[in-house]
Each structure stands twice: as C-alpha cells, then as structure tokens.
Amino acid sequence: MSQAVQEVGVLPRVHYLNASYGWKTWLFSTDHKRIAWLYLAAITFFFFVGGAAATLMRLNLIEPQGSLIEPSTYNRMFTLHGLVMIFFFLAPSIPAVLGNFLIPLMIGAKDVAFPKLNLLSWYIFMLGGTVFLYSVLAGGVDTGWTFYTPLSSTYANSNVMSAAMGVFISGFSSILTGLNFIVTIHTMRAPGLTWFRLPLFLWSLYATSIIFILAMPVIAITMVLLMLERFLHFGFFDPALGGDPILFQHLFWFFGHPEVYVLVLPAMGVISELIATFSRKRVFGYGFVAFSSVAIAALSFFVWGHHMFVSGESLYSGLVFSFFSFAVAIPSAVKVFNWTATLYKGSISFEAPMLYALGFIGLFTMGGLTGLFLATLAIDVHVHDTYFIVAHFHFIMVGGAVMGYLGGIHYWWPKMTGRMYSDRWARIAAVLVFVGFILTFGPQFILGYLGMPRRYAVYPPEFQTLNVLSSAGASILAVGYVIPLIYLIWSARYGPVAGPNPWGAKGLEWTTASPPPTENFDVTPVVTEEAYAFGTRTE
Amino acid sequence: MPLEPSSNFIQASSWADDWQTLFYFEVGIFIFFSVLIFSAILYFAVKYRRRAGNETPPPTKDHLPLEITWTVVPAAICVVMFLWGAVLFIRNGTPPAAATEIFVVGKQWMWKIQYPDGRRDINELHVPVGVPIRLTMASEDVIHDFAIPAFRIKKDVVPGHYSTLWFKATKTGKYHFYCDQYCGTSHSAMIGWVTVMEPAQYAQWLSGGAGSGGKSLADTGADLYKQYACSTCHDTGRGPSFVGVYGSIVKLSSGQTVKADDAYIRESIMNPSAKIVAGYTPIMPTFQGQLSEEQILQLTAYIKSLAKPEAEGRKAAKP
Q: Shortest Cα distance from B55 to chain A (angstroms)?
C-alpha cells in the first residue's frame, strides 16, 4: 500500500516549495509553511550557538580549576546558553516550526487565521534575536538567564540592558503566535473535525498557546521593570533603592514556570502523534491525555513558588506551592501511563521518530520523577541550586522537549520536503542522542546530591570524576546533534521521494501531497472519523 | 588539613539523618516507576513489534478503571511525599530558643563570620558538636546562599532581610560550605569550611582567636553607638531609649505593635520612618550606606545587651 501511494509524489507538480523562487518570496511570504522554514532556519542557528556555549562550559569543567576559560567568561557562557536555549530555541521550536507548518494542515485549513500577523511574529522574533545577539557580541551578559536582582539591576557590569531588551521583544512574537494558533484552532477546523477528533498535538499546542498569552506579558513587564531600575534607578527590586529582590523572583517565576511547560507540552503532543502512528493504535485514553494538557497548563500557573522554598518565602507559601507542584505531576504521570498503554497490542515499528518517542518517554519519566524530589519541601532544602536541579530540568527540556522536537522533525520531514532521509543514520543519531544524554546528565544528579552548586566555573577536586564523565557524555550528545543536520540537509535535495503518507499515518496532513500545495488541500477535506482511527477502515 | 573526598558528604547533622531517610524513600519511588515504565515499554516493544508491513491491530477500547487507578495511585504517593516533606520542613523551621547565635555576612565574594564574643573569620565557620547553632545571615550586596551539604541545609541570604539557618552538628570534622545562589564573577570562589569541634576545643578556639581587639560584638556595637552619635537622641529622650527594648513588644504611632527583634532594629536603622515608636516624631535620618551589615549586627548586639538587667550599669556609665 505504501508502495502504491509513493508513485503520486514523483510526478512533477507545483507545491509550496517551488511555487515561486527568490529570497523575497520567502522573506515576505505569508504561507504558514514557508514561515515555518524561516523559523526552522533561525532556531537551528540559535541551537548551535547555545550548543557552542554549552560545549565551552563542559570543556572548562573537565578540570576543577577550569581548563579553558576565566570565570567571567564561563558566567557569560551559561547565561548565553540559558537565554538562547530557552527564549530563542526551545520556546519557538515545536510551536513556531512544527506548529506553524502543521496546524492548518491538521485541521484542513488553507493557512492560519492571521497569515500576516504570523509573518510579523517571525520578524519580531528576529528583531529580539538580533538585539540579543548584539548583547553577546558587545561582550555578553553574566547574570544567568534568571536575571536575579539586585545582581542584574545594580551590580552586574555586563550587557544586561540589551539582553533584557532582546527577551522583551521576542516575547511578543510568542504572544502573537499563541493568539494566532488559538483563533485558528477555534475557527478554521474542517467540517466534521470536532474538538474531540483533533490530533492530540493540537490539544497540546492549544494549551501552550494559552500559556504564551498569559505568561509572556509577565516576563515583558518584568524586563521593563528591570530595565527601569538598572537605567533610571527606580527602586523596584534593589533594597538599597527601597525595593525587594524577592518581588523580582515572584514575577520572574510566575512567567518562568509556565514557560517550562511551554517547552515540554508541545513535545508531549508530538509524542502522542508518534506513538499512535508507529504502533498503529489510537492513543490510549485520548480524553485523559487531551485534558491532562489543559490541566498542566492551568496548574502551571500555581507552582512558581517552588523556586523560592529557600529564598525566605513564608512557610505557608512553601506549603501551598509544594502541594501544587505535586498536583501538576499527576497529569504528567497520566500521559506517561497512557502512552505506554498505547503500545499494548499495537503493531510497533522502530523508525527513527519512534526511537525518539520511546526515548522521550523514558527520559521524561525520569525527569518528572526527580521533579518530585524538588517539590518536596524538605528535600529541596539540600538539592536546590545544585547540579541536581540542572540535571532535572535538562531531563525535561533536553530529554523531553528536544527529543520531542527531533522526533517531530524526523516524522514530518517527508511532509515538509517531500523527501526521505536515511533511516539508518537517523536511528544511529537517535541512539547517540539518548546514550549521550544519559551520560551527560545522569552524573549531574549525583553531583547535585553530593552538593555541587550550579553555575560554578571552578569546583572542589572531589567532583572531578563525575564532571569528566558528564563532559564525555556531552561529546557523544554533540555528535548525535550534528549528524541529523548533515543527513537532513542532504535528504532535502537527494533523498528518495517520500510520497504523501510514508508512515501509514492517520491525520489530515497525510492526506495531501508531500510537499503540500500552497493552498494545502485541493478540496477542503471533510472529517468523518476519530483521530488515529487505525484498523477501523481500510486506507 | 587535607581531606578525603568522602568526608565532605557524610551525614553530619541531626537534620541530615531525617533528610536522608526521606531521600531514600523518594529514590525508591523513582526506581520503582522508572523500572515499571522502562520494562513495560521494552516488553511491549518486543512482544508487539510489527511482524508484517500491512498488519493493523484492532483498536483497544479506553478503560476507565485503569485511568482512575493510575491517577489515584500516583496522587496518593504524592500526598505521602508532600506531607512527609512538609512535616520535616515545618519541624525544622524554627531554631531552638537555646541555640547559639553566629552571624554570617555575605558579600561579593566572601563570607564574613562573626561570633558573639567578638572573634571574626572569613570563609571559616567553627561550631561545637551537639549544640544547636543559629546562623543569622545578611548580605551586603546581592543575593547569596549559604549551603552546607554535609548538613543537608541551605538558605538564601537576601539583601535587605535577615535570614536564619540552624543546625545541630553530630559529627566532628571539616566540611565544605558553598555559596549556592549565583552572585556574580567569583561566585564559585565563595566557598569555605565548617569545622565541627568538641565543645571544649571550641571554647579554646574561641578564646584564642584574633578578632576586633578582643572586644565582644556588643562592645564594638557600643563604640559604634558613640561614634555615630546615636546617644545624642536615644539617651536624651528625643528618641526612644533602648534599655529593655530588645525582645519586648513596641507600640507604634500607627497604633500597631511590633516585636523588637533583629529585623525590626535593622529596619529602624536603615529606614527609620517605616515604624515610628508611639510618642516620638520621625526625625531620625537613615543610616543606609553608612553602616555595613556587620556594623548593624554589632549595634544590634549592643542593643540586645541592654535588654538584660546587668546592662543597666554599662548604660549608666555612659556620659
């Protein structure tokens, strides 16, 4: 069957990639699919910038005294790494690339609700990114991505203003994207595509968009307050000016914790798609998985205080935030159990996207379970601000979000390009990423448990063995990230033609040609079946 | 004194033992669920691997009891962890009244330690074993964090606030302490040693050290009191007297009351008009920027010494 459909794609025809040529037709395109490519190019650049900073850090930590760079440089590297990866890679990764490309295709629409706004979002993102890059080239910023005051507002001598401005600007891109997605999903679904027939990827993007709209304005306000204090000495946060440094933490984490769910929720959506397709099963407990996304989004706004258990917040705040932090673990656990149950009696194949999906479930499980340690008031007292935290959130953000992103890119790549990459190389890369990841961040749990503080350019010698192990793992991880860059670019030109539905998947995006025509569908599709309706009717 | 790496991470406080038990419980939960999920995935992946390209398994029906089970069971486990962690945290939240007080001031990038009898140190904390110790901590600049992994404790040291950390060391030895809150360029150099000693040894160490000329904290504070001319008002009735004030309940002009503790005294020095004692006018200037956190601690120690009856003599001796 998959043989038969592949023939369709070989015919020379007009699609969104070859409909027009020249850089202007890309930079001024309002086609959501082309805008997705603009984002893809930008965030791939930022990913390797952030990755280069991480490489320098891991090299430096091979020796306790720092083998490579001065502490002041090291501090700039982890700040750069954090800011780039959070704001300029992870936040736009799945939503702005895969979401942009897929939302209209998955709901049977021609484009998003506001195509021009969509293009504007990209320009805002690029403006923010450029301002941020200026701060890096002008000497960098050394406050940590958290910008804690009064270090950032009064004491730091680095480029805080331009870095904060970059973050401030780029936030508006996410707000507009979120707005666009919400309106699109509400108003542009094909006939018959009810809410409970939506692919789970869209449920998770919908939840993500809500967080974008509610949380991003808070970081924008916080950055403005920070800039006002730093530049004009308004006393919001610095006690010497009459402010309160803890206020900044409340504002920052009111944004910051929902933000980390912005990073992982879309990946959860991708995983639901992958698990369903590669086990040829409807996602087990569809309704529970869908509502758990919404529950996570809602609860994510009530957990921010768990970043402040040891900062002097009141005991009662600590109790409330600890409780809600445990509560948000439940919908996450529900997802993991349902994904695992989806495999039951399935027909499971192990192409590269599925390897990423299975890797995601394993790493996310471990990342989530270690989150319980941090939600526990007593335990947090010791492991807070140590490498335990670093390991935990990398399990969620790299083991979770990046694995989900790579899995999604591999899964929809044939749809985006019409071409297939080498599955063998892709599997090798997926395994390298998984193994390299465990070796990099596994030892960091032990380092944190032993008390090694995070953000240390130099450290006591007893921590060296585990740091060397972590750095060695990072080198494997780096190779795992570079390989896909090579074969994916190669495949876009030389890969075998993929055909509209190379995986035998369900979902509207697989019913149109690969690459899709500019208007996505020749005729507006009508949906008559549930999502992931495998085995209910012949393809 | 050279140290074996392992000696930095023994359980060396009473809290560390409680902490460790809960930690092992959570490690158990971690291992159980990780193994459960990993083995389920592996088992299904092998058992249900695709055997023929075109096979399409029949759909599996959703299963409500199963969904409820794996919602309720993790929730119950979470409640246990929440309560256990909260009870430990609350129980250890307040230091015992009898705790020995030591003052810690963080500044970029060192820790200044002051003992009540006047001994001072940098990046070295000495404590007696088996005695509850309360650290009253302040920051001169940015947020720092005082962390002692062997005791499994830490607390942010936030400028503008006093923070308190307490522990009872149970094993003599030498352990690392760190700054755990990123505080700028030399953050990673802001580390030092806690030396836990036998009480007799500690007493000997305390008396032998260099400090501020053998003067106690309160005596140094008394000097500052004179030097900054606090006495011009506070000993003449223009400002409230400090005799017997520390620890008492003070009536404010707003009608509210406040307990005269370290934080109140600090605030009254740095931001005098925040809380005006009933019957007085807000004429005191701020000493923000003129007094360091250490000096405020010394002044506070002096005011504290006036709370005790025997301090009357010292005050009367003043001109």
A: 7
